[in-house]
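In this section we walk through a basic example: taking a raw amino acid sequence and producing a predicted 3D structure, encoded as discrete structure tokens. The instruction is simple. Fold the sequence below.
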Amino acid sequence: MHRLLRGELLMFGGFAVAATVTILLVLPTGTFAGSTQYTQMDSGPIGPADRDLLVRVRQAGLWEIPVGQWAQTRGESPSVKEAGRQMVSDHTKLDAATRALAAKLKVPIPDVASADQQSWMAQLSAEKGSAFDKDFAALLRAAHGKVFAVVANVRAGTRNDEIRKFANTANTVVLKHMTLLEATGLVDYGELPEPPTPTPVPPVATTAADTRRQ
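The resulting token sequence is shown next.
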């Protein structure tokens, strides 16, 4: 009797182990580890992409505000001076909104520009006149293109209401600045990164009725 009971327990134990392994295999990757990357807030969960957006917009202001100020004194073209003026105004407001939202959502943000941004600032700080204008338009238009894609992706997929509203504002500002930079006539579109290669679209199934109409 005891031997039979022990055999049954071993058998049920084996079933339990097998069931556990099956559950782990069926569950999507990241179900456990990925959950730690999200923080639940009143406005919805905050994920890695949401935090990255706040960091990137903060860093954009850290270099575009001083460079925009330089454009008004170092630039030669009136359109470059105007682009710089509007960038200073817009990013000052956007930076204040970024810092306020980051504090509210408990997202740490930097106080210094990225290494690339610091190198661009060093380059522009040594220039003036037409040379400044050309590099100002090229560097800032390329940078805005990258941020524009980030904002769009976060806006499309965020689960947080506050981030969604913030992305709307950031999208408006970035698109405005891209347009201003292009209006200088100094942007070389051939030097910009090409759009990503689209995923092939599967052929649309043709019905018998469609065939008859053809």
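Looking at the output, two observations stand out. The radius of gyration is 26 Å. The CA atoms of residues 52 and 191 lie 26 Å apart. In the next section we compare this with other chains.
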